[in-house]
Amino acid sequence: MTLLLFCIFWVFASAGVAMLPMRRQYVPGVILLIAAPVLIVMIGLELGWIVALLALAAFVSMFRNPLRYLLARARGHHPETPK
Q: Is the pLDDT of residue 81 over 80?
């Protein structure tokens, strides 16, 4: 039950962050980006790996642009960020 509440809170928090102006999305977005893999692992432990894969697919779909940015930074590129 606690996992379900954490997941619901994460979804509402991410929807709220998405409504913020771009310059104010960074700090809460990074917190949500860090919290998501922890939740996905917890989902995998409680509900199984198939459900965890579905959660991972939803996470990657939702955070595709920040993940692309982090991947480009890891490769040594300096991508442009919105102002």
A: no
